Amino acid sequence: MGTGQNFPATGVILAIITCLALLVLQLDWAIALAVLVLWVGTLMVAAGRPPEPPKTKVKQKLSLESISQLIENSSTPVMVTDRNTITIANRAARQMMGPHMIGQDARMAFRQPEAISLLAQERSGSAIVRGLARRQDIWQINRQAIDDRIAVLELINQTAEADISRAHTDFVANASHELRTPLAAILGYVETLQEGGEDLDSPTAQKFLGIIEREAKRLQSLISDLMSLSRVEAEKHDLPRDLIALAPLVDRAAHDAAGSVNADRLRLVIATEPQVRGDVAQLEQVVRNLVDNAFKYGHPGTPVEVTLDLARENEARVTVADQGEGIAPDQLPHLTRRFYRTDPGRSRASGGTGLGLAIVKHIIERHRGRLDITSTLGEGTQVIMRLPIADPDRSPRGASSRQSEPSS
């Protein structure tokens, strides 16, 4: 018989000693016998128990289960490999690369030279790969070697960061180009005036000076728009708190944009008088910009209609409509991009900077509103600003309610 089934000698000796001690203490024979039976029964139960499994195996099993449970709900794709074979993949990894990847060689799953080179290494490291899920995606693969067999792979999506970096690069390049064009014209005509001196007749000199003035104003307008865009982007997370009446603001800004030249073309319809939480200067800038664009791109002599009404019970709507050539459907999604122009030559000739609608979009987003643009070729364009109507009895973020009316 195995030793696990024998009564341990020390246990029996201890039971006898316990009985003798009870007798010495002059206890009843029945009590002493009961204690002896209890000891023997305990020893029999202990002797009949099966041997416990090795603790190391239990720990190893729990460890694998815990790893799987720990990474399953992570939003970052994570995989565990055993000698480069994918043994565990969380939900994000399975959704990205398919459930069939489990049991597959990781080098075959990724099929990227940079990833294959990383997996061939025995040490930890990282690599940048493109097109794992979609063609333009950029991913960073981090490999953490646990031992000579097990490794953890973490995939971090770098696409958004790359897009932001590329957008900044494009913005700097476009801004530099836009600034360089008027500067080149100004410097060129100034140099001509300096070299010509008294040889230039007065009409020619005046023409050159007029061009210099026009380009300088264009440059000034561009710098102003760049600064305005920078300010709006810096404040885009700050919800405006001032309670303002929208009807007089729209009336004032629309007439300012029309001026005396286009006053007879302006058709203003005020159907409601809502109050909104807003920045007076920025909302006036939006209306002036939209009305100014409508006059620029509408056919000469045709009216520009500005309407203020309610889109819903809790939403004010400002619509600016022109009767111009309209905009092609494929160009509509790009209109709010910086420096985007449907007709670059016409836009520059009219003094446009290509930043107006980008500024408008950011201002409306700051006011938690929405910008919509619809257009029909040959008929005209409608630009719609929607803003949430304010509750006068409630102030955002604990701010005090106050009426804000700028001076005329």
Quick take:
By secondary structure, the protein is α+β, with helices and mostly antiparallel strands.
Descriptive notes:
The protein is of the alpha+beta class and 408 residues long. It folds into 4 domains: 3-48; 67-157, 2-Layer Sandwich (Beta-Lactamase), CATH 3.30.450; 162-233, Orthogonal Bundle (Helix Hairpins); 239-398, Heat Shock Protein 90 (2-Layer Sandwich). It has 12 helices and 12 strands. It has helices at residues 9-24, 29-48, 55-72, 91-97, 106-110, 113-120, 159-196, 202-234, 246-258, 280-297, 344-349, 356-366; strands at 78-82, 85-89, 125-130, 138-145, 150-157, 243-245, 266-270, 275-277, 304-312, 315-321, 370-376, 380-388. Strands 2-1-5-4-3 form a 5-stranded antiparallel beta sheet, with helices on both faces. A 5-stranded mixed beta sheet has the order 7-9-10-12-11, with helices on one face. Strand 4 and strand 5 form a beta hairpin. Helix 1 runs antiparallel to helix 2 (29-48), helix 9 (246-258) crosses helix 10 (280-297) and helix 10 (280-297) runs antiparallel to helix 12. The protein is elongated and about 120 Å long. The protein starts with 8 loop residues before the first helix and ends in a 20-residue tail after the last strand. Mean pLDDT is 78; it is low at 1-7, 56-62 and 397-408.
How much of the sequence is in beta strands? 15-25%
CATH topology call of the largest domain: Heat Shock Protein 90
CA(first)-CA(last) distance = 108 Å
Write down the Rg. Answer: 40 Å
| Main beta-sheet annotation | 5 strands, antiparallel
Average per-residue pLDDT, rounded, comes to: 78
Count up the helices.
Answer: 12
Kindly report the spatial arrangement of strands forming the biggest sheet. 2-1-5-4-3
Provide the CATH top-level class of the largest domain. Alpha Beta
Query: Judging by the overall fold, what is the CATH architecture of the largest domain?
Result: 2-Layer Sandwich
Shape label: elongated
Mind telling me the CATH superfamily name of the largest domain?
Histidine kinase-like ATPase, C-terminal domain
Number of strands: 12
In percent, how helical is the residue content? 40-55%
Which stretches of 5+ consecutive residues score pLDDT under 50? 1-7, 56-62, 397-408
N-to-C SSE series? HHHEEHHHEEEHHEHEEHEEHHEE
Number of domains: 4
